[in-house]
Amino acid sequence: MIFQHEEFASHMSFRLMNQHGVNDPIKLISMCPTMDLLAVCTETDSVWVARWFNSLEKIWTLPAEKHDEDKVEVLTWRPDGKVIALGYSSGAIRLYNVDKLEMIHELFPQSTDPKLKTNSISSSAINFLIWVQENESDNENVNEQQSAKIIKASIAPDLSYIILFVRASYTSPAVKSKTSTNDKLVEVILNTGLLHARKNEIRTLSQTYTTIKYLTEYIFEGFKQIKAEYENMKSSAKIYIDKFQSVLLENDEFVHFLATGRPSSLLHKYLEMHLTKRGLKDWENKGQKSFEQIREYIHHYVRPGCERLLLRLSTLIGYCKWQQRFKGLGLSESYVRSIIVSTECLINRLENMLNAIDEKYINFMEFQQWLQYEFDNISLVDHNQSQEAPPRIDISKVASYIKSSLHMDFLDDYFEETADIPLPDMLILRCNKMSTSTAYNVVNSVDTKEFLDIIDNLIEDSEGTLSLLLDTRIVTKENQTFVYVAFCLSRTIQYLPPSLWVLRSSLKSENAFDSLEKPSDKRTSEITFIRLSNQERQNEYLRITDMRLFDDEKMHIIVTGLNETENEVSFIAEVNYSKLNFVQVAGPHIIQVIEKSNRVNVVDQILNQKNMENFNSLLVHQYREITQFKPSKLITNGARRLACILSEDKKRIIILDTNDQEDEDEDNSEMMQFS
What we know:
Blueprint: E1 4-5, E2 15-21, E3 26-31, E4 37-42, E5 47-51, E6 57-62, E7 72-77, E8 83-88, E9 93-97, E10 102-107, E11 150-155, E12 161-168, E13 184-191, H1 194-197, H2 199-249, H3 253-260, H4 265-274, H5 277-321, H6 323-326, H7 333-382, H8 395-405, H9 412-415, H10 423-445, E14 447-455, E15 468-477, E16 480-489, E17 499-507, H11 510-514, H12 519-522, E18 525-531, E19 543-549, E20 554-562, E21 568-576, E22 583-584, E23 590-591, H13 602-609, E24 616-617, E25 619-620, E26 622-625, E27 631-637, E28 642-647, E29 652-657, H14 660-674
Parallel strand pairs: 1-25, 18-24
Antiparallel strand pairs: 2-29, 3-4, 4-5, 5-6, 7-8, 8-9, 9-10, 11-12, 12-13, 13-14, 14-23, 15-16, 16-17, 17-18, 18-22, 19-20, 20-21, 21-26, 27-28, 28-29
Helix pairs in contact: 2-4, 2-5, 2-10, 5-7, 7-8, 7-10
Keywords: Cell cycle, Cell division, Mitosis, Ubl conjugation pathway
Protein name: Anaphase-promoting complex subunit 4
GO cellular component, one term: nuclear periphery
């Protein structure tokens, strides 16, 4: 065996659940935390979700974006397994309901310049997406981006800290190689400020802002539909009434019509030559439908949307007055009231539009009734039949409709804006600015408490890939919180022989930051490393392909090496990282500025001691040889005790159950009790 293992370790503890192949190489893959589902993004940027338990049965597929530059960079599940979040290179974030394949939310950085489009997208790509479920830890939902300064990120379950592992650069004239840099790995502890202290209030505001966002977009779309229907009404009326108007304008026919209420000989001839019963009915139906459609948009959609928006804005006024809880969150009572005034102006405009439409509709129906009567009389005269008595028609309303139809612009004033931005657009911009103000205050409240200089001189290969594997997890036990970070450096001379390092740093309690003591007096750091010696070949070492801190005690690694027959073999192995021999890191190791300094980083302190007997050889708790393919990536699901391994060609995967041995012991115990 190429590594040591515990006496009772089983080489079949990782039970093979299934294995699958795909056509397109896989770029991103994530396991559902609650169901037998995989979310996959291929290198062609097609995203799909499939059941993995039997055949790889696809539930739905999301086609690649139309724009080549908008690539999926991050993919992660919500902790309840019902929603998938996708982060794009354009800066957009889209949330999809897994059951219905519908986008339930979309976020993107928006420009504060009112002259730009309201949905103008920033060029900053999304590198990390982390779902936070309070009181539950979920640290696997991060993504590594080669070009990113941040290598890994994690957040405390109570939102009190954000932990960043940063590749920090400093310049040095001595470094001229393109494949070697003076970069260092630094752990950054961020105090989340308002995000932790006002998390309930922020959640409340977020829900209110989300509702306001939907309402303003709903109002905007409704107003756009009203304008489109109005333009459609104008174009339809123009088709039918153009010739009618030209006859009326000739030889004072309109004056004759007003005086007698009857068509002249020329108008009579027009009705006889250009109108049919079917055409007349079609004109009436289209006009009536347009009037009713506009009334419905206003009365049942846009105006109720404005009224609901007023209710939400009134709620924000109450929050503004509640200074004890909402102070410092970017709320301004005067600004909210200005949005209320704009909304009331829009409601008033809608009321005036309704009145204009109702008046126009009555005139239109009178005109249609008059036109139908005159047309019917033409048919009776042609057949030598006696004319019927005329219906009661208000000729003034008929004339009013005909007169206004000569221009057909009775709603134009309601869509013409005196300001540069239409009122519905202005509502969206001002509400977005309000929510952005809160976000800005929350972000600015986050401050850096400490830096921990872990290692210097990170190495890149010829392709610019960082030779560093890293994973992190926040563990809380017995009212103590620790940050674990496991990292392994490869292809580097400075830190040979190859080793797997685990750093454990304590996080101060919430009260510790409020005390008068210095932060460095409270924080402790311990470190250990595991030698990756090959047990079957002396002076040779193992290579770790990927690793994950599986739960609060165990880590899974993919380890590769040559066996005694000189064949390369790969294993998935489990190591209990919480029980390793940790040693105290002597100070000073906490820095306040990321720069080249005389402080000795954590790793170099241990190497300088030249005392390695306190550290560990690789001792595996359970393992399984990977014979299906050459592995490249490990994805784990600690909640369901599952592991997924991706092949080097990115076209094959295997699913493993990591809890098989425990289940077997439980079954044997139950059988003994039954006996």
